Amino acid sequence: IAGITQAPTSQILAAGRRMTLRCTQDMRHNAMYWYRQDLGLGLRLIHYSNTAGTTGKGEVPDGYSVSRANTDDFPLTLASAVPSQTSVYFCASSDGAQGIDEQFFGPGTRLTVL
Amino acid sequence: GQNIDQPTEMTATEGAIVQINCTYQTSGFNGLFWYQQHAGEAPTFLSYNVLDGLEEKGRFSSFLSRSKGYSYLLLKELQMKDSASYLCAVMDSNYQLIWGAGTKLIIKP
């Protein structure tokens, strides 16, 4: 693989269910990010990780959790999905000491919570 | 609060020039990015400005004025494949990107 992959591509989920969105990069980038994109709004940062073993909260972290056990993987978990979490989720990565490098995005996961 | 403003939608003609404006108010500034996003696809990087002035890259140019909190993306010799959304994003003092809602550019033949 080259770049960032996300799985699944799309998912319909019943409210209350647990769901993990997967993200893997093979560029050996230090930093990784999870965004959600909703119509009429800009990308909003959910969680980020500046390096393996560390994570931080973004603008809209409630209802989501992440882990960064290694450099390549950065899964996003919805513990108990709610309809307001219906969105397109993008994973991204970047490699820069102070995060000023461009971010590379995965193809996205379209999630619908009913 | 932090705010990025850009027009919702613009229309231009194939072969013409279009300028997409972006104004911002953020807590700190560590650079401004422009990304292109085709419908149903991921954003891809176009340009980065951290100093005032114009950065040119082929048909695309990006301008920054930090004192005015203003940037624009200039697209020349428009092609049908330039139909996309253009996202303006500012890196704040915490090195997090604050994103505008994007400008949908429609190119007509």
Topology:
The complex is a heterodimer of chains A (114) and B (109).
Chain A: E1 4-7, E2 10-13, E3 19-25, E4 31-37, E5 44-49, E6 56-57, E7 64-66, E8 76-78, E9 87-94, E10 104-105, E11 109-113
Parallel strand pairs in A: 2-11
Antiparallel strand pairs in A: 1-3, 3-8, 4-5, 4-9, 5-6, 7-8, 9-10, 9-11
Chain B: E1 3-5, E2 9-13, E3 18-25, E4 32-37, E5 44-49, E6 53-57, E7 60-65, E8 70-75, E9 84-91, E10 97-99, E11 103-108
Parallel strand pairs in B: 2-11
Antiparallel strand pairs in B: 1-3, 3-8, 4-5, 4-9, 6-7, 7-8, 9-10, 9-11
Describe this structure in words.
The complex is a heterodimer of chains A (114) and B (109). Chain A is built from no helices and 11 strands. Chain A has 114 residues and is an all-beta fold. Chain A is globular and about 40 Å long. Chain A starts with a strand and ends with a strand. The model of chain A has no long low-confidence stretch (mean pLDDT 94). Chain B has strands at 3-5, 9-13, 18-25, 32-37, 44-49, 53-57, 60-65, 70-75, 84-91, 97-99, 103-108. In chain B, strands 2, 4, 5, 9, 10 and 11 form a 6-stranded mixed beta sheet that branches. In chain B, strands 1-3-8-7-6 form a 5-stranded antiparallel beta sheet, with no helix packed on it. Chain A binds chain B through residues 40-45, 48, 58-59, 90, 98-100, 102-108, and chain B through 4, 30-31, 33, 41-45, 48, 50, 87, 89, 91, 95-102.
Task: Let me know the number of strands of chain A.
Answer: 11
Determine the N-to-C terminus distance of chain A. Answer: 33 Å
Order of helices and strands of chain B: EEEEEEEEEEE
Helical content of chain A (DSSP H or I, runs of 4+): under 10%
- Report on the biggest sheet of chain B: 6 strands, mixed
Q: Quick one: overall form of chain A?
A: globular
Q: Which structural class do the helices and strands of chain B define?
A: mainly beta
Provide the β-strand percentage band of chain B: over 45%
Helical stretch tally of chain B: 0
**Proportion of helical residues of chain B:** under 10%
Number of helices of chain A: 0
Taking all Cα atoms into account, the compactness measure Rg of chain B is 13 Å
Largest interface: A-B, 20 and 22 residues
